Amino acid sequence: MKAIVYTQHGLPIADPASLIDFDLPRPAPGPRDLLVEVRAVSVNPVDTKVRKGSAVTEPRVLGWDAAGVVRAIGDQVTLFKPGDEVFYAGSIVRPGSYSEFHLVDERIAGRKPANLGFADAAALPLTSLTAWELLFDRVQAQEGGDRGKTLLIVGAGGGVGSILVQLARRLTGLTVIGTASRPETQEWVAALGAHHVIDHAQPMRPQLERHGFKNVDIAISLTHTGQHYAQLVDMLAPQGKLALIDDPDALDAMALKRKSISLHWELMFTRSMFETPDMIRQHHILDRVAKLIDDGVLKTTVGEHFGKIDAANLRRAHALIESNKARGKAVLEGF
After folding, report:
1. Is residue 255 within 8 Å of 229, Cβ to Cβ?
2. What one-character DSSP code corresponds to residue 81?
3. What kind and span of H or E run contains 177?
4. Second label for 329, Cα 20 to 30 Å away, from 75, 158, 202, 301?
């Protein structure tokens, strides 16, 4: 089967050897696996981080977001059957989705939204799961609740932010304040439903105060947390909540003590990596997201379509992600 791999970590994405077209055997499903014919993928920052930082001794397939059709199932599968259309974010400890056929545990796959094509669906799983877990599992926002409370989302124009803004605005009573540093991403965040948009490239407290807020109850930082950390601690209300997904070089938790701020770290891969008892929750989240899409409550967050799934186009998509100028998600479709 066709696949796109890297064989040497750390190469600049402009180097044609950083991602190459390759041929691999078609895998066979394990007991709870779906064998999926991949129709579309999307590219996430984790794809570029693994390519640059994880050494390999054999070709490694990257990519976790995918949408496709189930072609075979393991003997313990109960949630899907061959012919079902699915979308999912995969497991970081298994081969990725940049391949014609891919294995995924049924407990972390969902039914593809009926109203979306494969490319639009592939843009959603990793960011939707991350955003949902941040909002409802980590900082424990309440569906239909939290009226009068404020949520600050740093980096609201990226893939996770684009879903998080929608979830918070549509499903909770939180006042949503998104940050974006460029006019086009500021417009994007406002269009997604943020009540207010501020610029994280400028001091944030004065902007917050101009909108009438002294503090925020919850801050979710999706990018450059180390750079913004002191401001976030300052802006958070006493007994507030801080959540993040990125990897700052250092994080001094002592700064949180005076205000009794709680710290929440989110990694979407945790449930599948450790096969936690609640691993199937990701299946339920994705099914819920699909229904919200089909009901018109949420919309896909495709930013740019890079064409068919091959090494050259994936290198272009990785370059966009590494530029930190992506708006929404980068998708590819077909082999």
Report:
1. yes
2. -
3. strand 175-179
4. 202
Say yes or no to pLDDT of 325 above 90: no
Quickly list H helices, 172-238.
183-192, 204-210, 225-235
Can you give the pLDDT at residue 201? 95
Phi and psi, residue 98, nearest 5°? -80, 60
**Cα distance between residue 243 and residue 307, in whole Å:** 35
C-alpha torsion angle, residues 115, 119, 121, 123 (rounded to 10): -140
Task: State the number of CA atoms in the 13 A half-sphere of 103 facing the CB.
Answer: 15
Q: What are the backbone dihedrals phi and psi of residue 81, each rounded to the nearest 5 degrees, phi first? A: -140, 160
Neighbours of 190 (CB within 10 A): 17
Question: What letter would DSSP give residue 27?
Answer: P
pLDDT on residue 144? 95
SS3 content of the chain, % helix, strand, coil (to 5): 35, 25, 40
Nearest to 222 by CA among 151, 302, 171: 151
At 290 the pLDDT is 98
CA atoms 48, 191, 266, 78: torsion sign: negative
For 308-321, what is each residue's pLDDT tens digit?
Answer: 999 999 999 999 99
Share of the chain above pLDDT 90, in %: 96
